[in-house]
Amino acid sequence: xxxxxxxxxxxxxxxxxxxxxxxxxxxxxxxxxxxxxxxxxxxxxxxxxxxxxxxxxxxxxxxxxxxxxxxxxxxxxxxxxxxxxxxxxxxxxxxxxxxxxxxxxxxxxxxxxxxxxxxxxxxxxxxxxxxxxxxxxxxxxxxxxxxxxxxxxxxxxxxxxxxxxxxxxxxxxxxxxxxxxxxxxxxxxxxxxxxxxxxxxxxxxxxxxxxxxxxxxxxxxxxxxxxxxxxxxxxxxxxxxxxxxxxxxxxxxxxxxxxxxxxxxxxxxxxxxxxxxxxxxxxxxxxxxxxxxxxxxxxxxxxxxxxxxxxxxxxxxxxxxxxxxxxxxxxxxxxxxxxxxxxxxxxxxxxxxxxxxxxxxxxxxxxxxxxxxxxxxxxxxxxxxxxxxxxxxxxxxxxxxxxxxxxxxxxxxxxxxxxxxxxxxxxxxxxxxxxx
Length: 436
Prior knowledge:
This protein is mainly alpha-helical. It has one domain (3-424): Growth Hormone, Chain: A (Up-down Bundle), CATH 1.20.1250. It is built from 19 helices and two strands. Strands 1-2 form a two-stranded antiparallel sheet. A hairpin with a 4-residue loop joins strand 1 and strand 2 (212-215). The radius of gyration is 22 Å and the shape is globular. The model is unreliable at 190-236 and 424-436 (pLDDT under 50).
């Protein structure tokens, strides 16, 4: 991996950390939100669902758009957008405006996720399952930091105090934009605003297996199997093959929808559940951090195991294991319960990066759209489960609601069992470009 690619990978990953930090800013402080806005648990669940829907449902559309022209400046803009709006939500005069601001903020994340995943896999070349797992893990580590940072701030300063957390995201957005300007300057080769590509002076990259000469920028933007994944001159897929690919992507999406409904309900209502069990807001935030940090740490190991043993068995084990450990957490109190919750966290997100890479390989020419379906659409539909969990909590209590929701993990595991074996195969060798 070249120096420029390494720099891009670091910036994209760091941006993912902060994007997910701001995207999750309100979730650990739901008890404070309920108190300050004087809303019901159903209305609190609607906040989580609104954010999940706007963050996620448009990801396939944005993925399709960024497939056409992936650029770092788009990442910078999307990060600045979500940072600004999320940290200003505390100034909303009433619940309706608050909900609208949350929904609009989610659009920044809807753009960042598909574009960031595509740029990450392109930057690193091979070992895509591991690369995507690291990318996902870094984002989840950003989420895990929220309870440790946002909860004390909100307790001390109220919701308006969240604006004090805006600086890191805005600074990183500026650094990403600077990297884009540097990239454009390199392409221009010092000419007055004319890129080397436009002037016909760009370095030529040879894609040996395809035997074609393309510019560096064209190689990044090429939407073909040869330039992105396999590196061979492949014939267009048959209609039957394309239909099968869409079927398996739909199954994977349904798996992630069910898994997301459970995960989002957990991170949204764990603080409420723990406070009701006698924990302080700070202690509840620390336990939520343990759950989310374990998820961030578990994802890279899932990528390593998937590269060695295949994606399908890893996905199966992660879903079934998460169900078992969450059940034990709800059954036990104290330190043992927290350990069970952390083990559940280490497993519950393992299926996400593996499904993303599988979908990208099925549709290499539409990698951004495929990423959006896996990371976005599934998360958005699954996020509606938070409203259901809120309604169940108002009716039967939070503990009963969580007991009901976790059963969704079992049909998710059953669907994985019916996936074809090629989902578990190692990915194809990356294309190797020479003659830069």
